[in-house]
Amino acid sequence: MLTTNQLKDFSKILKINDSVVAREYIQTLFLKELYEEKYSQNIFFKGGTAIRLIFGGSRFSEDLDFTVNENIEDFNNFINKFFRKVNKLHGFTFKKRITITGLKYLLTANSDNANHSVFISLDFSFREKVLKPDQSIIITPYPVIFTSFVRHLSAEEITAEKVRAIMTRNKGRDIYDLWFLLSKNISLKKDLIEEKLKYYQIKSFDQKALMDRIRVFNRDKFVLDLRPFVPINERAKLPDFFDFTLAFIKTKLHS
């Protein structure tokens, strides 16, 4: 684990609470161990934490999300052995959580330096195949050295999943993430989005329907959802940033 001084230093540099620093360090360490395994070629990192660690997103995240292109029995055999290995190396414990789809686990890391336990939800989805796989090298400020590529969904596919999230749930972080991805000039691929929407029996993608969903989102809910995940010096700006985000996305959709 990070020392007390390291936690304080990273907290100052990143302008975020030390509990968030501890969580991101554990996320990074878990990914490093996972992608050193040969089997991980079939496990694709995605979601908000992937946006931050691979694409340089400014929002911190609490979960690790993956799509697995393997049958669930083979994956179970692998992941149980892997968890035992990581437990011996780092003392992390893993508890299976009840879920309707896929497999979920709660990673717990105990640290005297952080003055509290770190909890990370691990979500492994088997419901869909990866459409555009990619791989990257993660370079991190933490004392973690990657020696393997991290397999992940492409930027376009992650963006398609973010569009689907906005269309099917109400979380401010999804709007924030879509703003970030569009600000990096990542395109909305209609074919990818419509493939993602099939899971929810939505037959076609309409940019107007997307904008309508975003336009009616509650500003206070946006601020409340994002506040724990952005640097401390940016939190007071979130109400105004909500208005900017909506205007920015509207401009990008009509460009």
Describe this structure as you would to a colleague.
- Helix content is 48%, strand content 15%.
- The protein has 255 residues and is an alpha+beta fold.
- The chain has two domains: 150 residues, JHP933, nucleotidyltransferase-like core domain (Nuclear Transport Factor 2, Chain: A, Roll); 97 residues, no CATH class.
- A five-stranded mixed sheet has the order 1-2-5-4-3. The chain has a two-stranded antiparallel ribbon with strand order 6-7.
- A hairpin with an 8-residue loop joins strand 4 and strand 5.
- Helix 5 runs antiparallel to helix 6 and helix 6 packs across helix 10.
- The longest helix has 19 residues.
- It is globular.
- The model has no long low-confidence stretch (mean pLDDT 95).
Poorly predicted regions are: none
CATH-defined superfamily of the largest domain: JHP933, nucleotidyltransferase-like core domain
Structural class given helices, strands, pairing?
alpha+beta
Strand coverage percent: 5-15%
* Strand arrangement in the largest pleated sheet: 1-2-5-4-3
Mean pLDDT over the full residue set = 95
Briefly note the CATH topology name of the largest domain. Answer: Nuclear Transport Factor 2, Chain: A
CATH architecture of the largest domain: Roll
Instruction: Tell me the name of the CATH class of the largest domain.
Output: Alpha Beta
Write the element-wise H/E pattern from the N-terminal end onward. Answer: HHEHEHEEEEEHHHHHH
Q: Give a count of the beta strands, DSSP E runs of length 2 or more.
A: 7
Span between termini = 46 Å
Helicity, in percent?
A: 40-55%
Overall tally of structural domains:
2
